[in-house]
Amino acid sequence: NAGVTQTPKFQVLKTGQSMTLQCAQDMNHNSMYWYRQDPGMGLRLIYYSASEGTTDKGEVPNGYNVSRLNKREFSLRLESAAPSQTSVYFCASSEGPASGGTDTQYFGPGTRLTVL
Amino acid sequence: QKEVEQNSGPLSVPEGAIASLNCTYSDRGSQSFFWYRQYSGKSPELIMFIYSNGDKEDGRFTAQLNKASQYVSLLIRDSQPSDSATYLCAVRRGSTLGRLYFGRGTQLTVWP
After folding, report:
1. Residue A74 burial (CB count, 10 A)
2. Do B96 and B43 form a contact (C-beta atoms < 8 A)?
């Protein structure tokens, strides 16, 4: 049981390049999330998917797109990377609000992205 | 006003002392509250959650919630150097199912 996995762990891009960050969970969770974390800024939600087939914008969605490929996988795409997108990106998953439980979010190990 | 505010820190306490971490939130309709710990270079991990007013204890950790004052805190008793980390407060509002709003975190150092 790996929990939440993310690939790649590290990535360096040049301005204007595109890339997709991959996230997968094996906990049969309904909801998945993408956050970015910058020094002194805490975690900011980029996009989330409350359930398979749905996605919604979070606090900082500009410059990103997402795909909920299936229940397990939720990818984040940067179409034209900018230096302002240099950050650590975390994927998380949870059972979902309809589960009736605590809906705790579990985080992946993160992807450290640098845009030059 | 930011959704979730934490005392700015950094906080430094000696080993064996009580560390007190504080968090305030702006939405009176918030329903559940979480404390995450994040070691340097690692991902956040859940320490505790609390829903009801009052105290909730788990080992050396106690979460305290006061909804009237819109205030939640985390006390760490008998602090250990291994508790040195950044502590993130997160709040779930009633109107935004599933979403968490995070504070900026408080960095705690426990010195031997």
Report:
1. 28
2. no
* Candidate from B88, B98, B103 with C-beta closest to A103: B98
pLDDT, tens digit (0-9, with 9 covering 90-100), for A59-108:
999 999 999 989 999 999 999 999 999 999 999 999 887 766 678 899 99
CB atoms within 10 A of CB A92: 25
Strand boundaries in chain B, DSSP class E: 4-6, 11-14, 19-25, 30-38, 45-50, 54-58, 61-66, 71-76, 85-93, 101-102, 106-111
Q: Which residue among B49, B97, B99 sits closest to A104, beta carbon to beta carbon?
A: B49
d(CA B86, CA A104): 19
Pick from A42, A48, A96: CB nearest B103: A42
Give per-residue pLDDT as tens, B24-75: 999 888 888 999 999 999 999 999 999 888 999 999 999 999 999 999 999 9
Of B21, B23, B20, nearest to B5 (Cα)?
A: B23
Most B CBs within 10 Å, among A25, A105, A111, A112, to test the B interface:
A105
Residues of B in contact with A50 (CB under 8 A): 97-98
Distances in Å between the alpha carbon of B100 and those of A81, A86, A97? 26, 22, 11
Task: Please state, as a whole number, how many other Cβ atoms lie within 10 Å of the Cβ of residue A46.
Answer: 24
Please state the φ and ψ torsions of residue A85, each to the nearest 5 degrees. -90, 5
